[in-house]
Design goal:
alpha+beta, 9-stranded mixed sheet
Amino acid sequence: MAARLCSRARGTLATTRRALGSSSAAVRETFLTFFRERGGHQRVPSAPVRPRGDPSLLFVNAGMNQFKPIFLGTVDPRSEMAQYRRVVNSQKCVRAGGKHNDLEDVGRDVYHHTFFEMLGNWSFGDYFKEEACSLAWELLTQVYEIPRERLYVTYFAGDPSSGLGADEESRDIWLSLGVPPDRVLPFGLRENFWEMGETGPCGPCTEIHYDHVGGRDAAALVNRDSPEVVEIWNLVFMQLNREADGSLRLLPQHNVDTGMGLERLVTVLQRKRSNYDTDLFTPLMDAIHQGSRCPAYQGRLGSADAGNVDMAYRVVADHIRTLSVCIADGVYPGMSGAELVLRRILRRAVRFSSEILQAPPGFLPTLVPTVVDILGDAYPELRRDTSQIMNIIGDNEAAFLSSLQRGRRIIDRTLQQTTDSKVFPGAVAWSLYRDLGFPLDLIGLMLEEKGVTLDSAALEQLAQAEAQRKSQAQQAEEEGGGMRLDVHSLAELQRRGVPTTDDSPKYSYVLDADGRYVFSPCQATVLLLYKDQALHSLGKEGERCGVILDQTNFYAEQGGQAHDSGYFMRVEQQTQRLSCMVKHTATHLLNFALRRVLGESTEQRGSHVAADRLRFDVSIKAPVTPQQLQEVERAIQEVIQRNEVVHTAEVPVKVADSIAGLRKVDEVYPDPVRVVSVGLSVDQLLEENSQSGTRTSVELCCGTHLLRTGTVGDVVIVSERQLVKGVSRLIAVTGEQATQAREDGQMLAAEVESISQRLKTRSPSLLEAHRLSKEVGVLTDSVDSAAMPQWQRKELQMELKSLQRAANTAIRKLETRQAAEKARVLLEKHPDQLVIVDTVPADSVFALMKVVNQVCEQVPAASVLLLSQQDSGKVLCACQVSKASVHRLSAADWALKVCGQMEGSAGGSDVVAKGTGSTSNLDAVLGAALACAKAKLQESGS
């Protein structure tokens, strides 16, 4: 009876798939439905492409990433994930940057992508190889109805050097399923042994490959990078763990992790030879054709693709999908980490669209609605954030087009100034790449067009130095985590029946009669020690080891709050913890105030709470004004002054989700979850149809908080800047730091007012105007760097810019007036002269040139060279040659000859030039300057 039911289920699935057709949406849904109905798998949503709490990854690059806590044994036992046994989903993945990086391959072939969807099914300590292989074969051959004769499977052949035998169990399973022996192929470590990283769970894998041609023996093409025979499904059997010393140990629990790329599967089922010819891409290809000035996509590769036009189609289509998905998940183009990678992806798309496809500015964001039409049903966040995605891509496209122009100017200017104009400096190329996001291959192409080579050795040296710096930082981070329990030790603790450490005492603190926080002492028992990735009952004096306790009142870093530090025997430890508690409660108040002032659309994008300050990243619709920042601070102060009670309670996740106004971030929460509410008890928030939560701060949070808001004292936002368009980062301080920030702000405001009054009340002399301008500059630096209210900083910065303009205008007017007077005196001294050489007092070569300009304006036919002796002994030189004489006398040559006589240097054009030198005989220099000019003019005239 059971067999008949299974057969009927298979028939129903196949019939359903045929009814829906082979559309990508139907293929995805068929996979998910098969494992839910046929295999009893729980369907879970895709995780965002930004990894949760995994600094080792820039992006989620495989379906298993969100389940790493299960594989590593670190999953919170109270969370839903801890109950997973059989799971299925379609995971959004990005492979660009880091270990898995397909960025440079995209466009060169028809199957590499930076963004793709990974269909996967998992078993966590449940079924293993036999059921995994059987389910995969059944889905492919009976539901998707892929011809068996086109499929090949591979298995791990073993590796004697690693002490690993062949995975004969997988081989025998495939043979029992009817796969011919000549289509079950052994391969080595590189192809058929999967590892999570340098350390961690790993094991043999078996892969299923598809022959696009058929009707032949294609075994020799398997795993040979042939576009005709491609891998479509990888089944990983996690049964080992790679230790820090490189050795392998059996895992306490066997797991199955499979991954099948939707794009390749759809290509097979739609009987195409290219992923870009499927319905996941063809609407995008049509949209690109409509918006560009190029012929329609032809699917050509390599030398057949004249001008790389079809490659550009593939690059733009792939990259716009990646950009849309990442931005919808909160990863925006930026300057570091995943954000920097996304910035490069966007700029690569802009380059191909503008330079090869000849698309107009503003083209990329017009493709976003097409991406949403294709993927929006599977991933609703794309539909929710369509406008924001388009705005961010549009702004970044415009910025890069501007950078392209700047980069070209920098390259041209560098070549003009470089002694060896045939070799381009590696340092400049690195700066263009690092600071302007200029692709290195584009720099190479532009230099090649000019017949110039790049100093590759210098560039490589700079790149290696950067890589070394990043490696050292990563090593330091890894060393800092050296006391983390590994998967074997966690399993050993469970085997021994050692209970999970009870950390609920971290929430045990009260306010005493004097309003001081008192942290209750926690008497704990040492259960075991942890050292060298092993558990120990005893330790030696002086050894560094981890201590496993039955309970603790220490707070471990989570939820954006820094960890506690201290000593086992220390009592009344309030400094570090209380400071963090103040900042954490202040963070919740800030989140609430931002929503009240800026609107319900604001959303937390990240935060970190430390003892000295708090950081809060928030999505915004428009730049935050000084007035809005001031309103946010006032809203927080109102709650502080009311000294509201901070309520906490643990409730089931589904119950908490019903609270109106609840704020939470994209994290995996335990069940039950902790609710933190200001001013209203959680029971009040859970009353039927209650909307009271929309009027206060209520969040899901595991952090430690104040019991009343009054202890915060005050909150001052001391910094606000945009990370990218649509996301702003705020830094705030509390208590005495906030008070000091307000006092510093008032002091600086008074200084700004003083300078303003001095500029308004009297007309300064040139010396005083210069002094005021310098004061404004110094004060501007002070305002820029001071810890003060950001709203006040912005207002003072605007006022200081205005004062700087006023001071500079006064200086220009006074200098022009003085220059005109000096010019009048010179013309009286040298009436009707066409060559004027003399000395004039001047503070700078700029001021000296003004006098030259004034003389030449009044006597356009005159050529003028002036010198100015400085107290330091240096002599300034400035000259200008009349238009009538420029073909006979070059200003640059004139200045160079004069300054050369003074053992100095000069530069400029044929019309104007300036320089400096030093001499003890200024009269001789003046005579030589006059003689030089007259000789040139007479020589040419004769």
